[in-house]
Amino acid sequence: MEEQQVSFEEAMERLELIVGRLENGDVPLETAIELFQEGMKLSQLCGSKLEEVERKIEVLIEGESGLQKKPFAPANEDRGD
């Protein structure tokens, strides 16, 4: 799986599948290690894609208001959950 060509949604789907297999616990140790390594790469890829989107949102907000840069806050932080 070519990391740079994978969409966020595809990476999350694959990551969920990997987590499910690892939680099931019936994979050989060598396979579990390979799945874990792939999962870590996918997690990092998703994190970097989210950071990129966050920067774009900050720029858009700054461009719209022209006054100040407002960082993106996830919905659960807005509610204080």
TrEMBL record:
Statement: the UniProt record of this protein carries the keyword Cytoplasm: yes
Under which EC number(s) is this enzyme classified? 3.1.11.6
Q: Which family does it belong to?
A: Belongs to the XseB family.
Function of the protein: Bidirectionally degrades single-stranded DNA into large acid-insoluble oligonucleotides, which are then degraded further into small acid-soluble oligonucleotides.
The keyword Cytoplasm is assigned to this record: yes
Give the GO molecular function terms. Answer: exodeoxyribonuclease VII activity
Per UniProt, the keywords (alphabetical) are: Cytoplasm, Exonuclease, Hydrolase, Nuclease
Supply the enzyme class, top level. Answer: hydrolase
Catalytic reaction annotation: Exonucleolytic cleavage in either 5'- to 3'- or 3'- to 5'-direction to yield nucleoside 5'-phosphates
Compartments it resides in: Cytoplasm
Looking up NCBIfam families in the UniProt record yields: xseB
**What SUPFAM superfamilies does the record point to?**
XseB-like (SSF116842)
- Cited Gene3D superfamilies: Exonuclease VII, small subunit
Q: Which protein, by its recorded name, is this?
A: Exodeoxyribonuclease 7 small subunit
Q: How does it assemble?
A: Heterooligomer composed of large and small subunits.
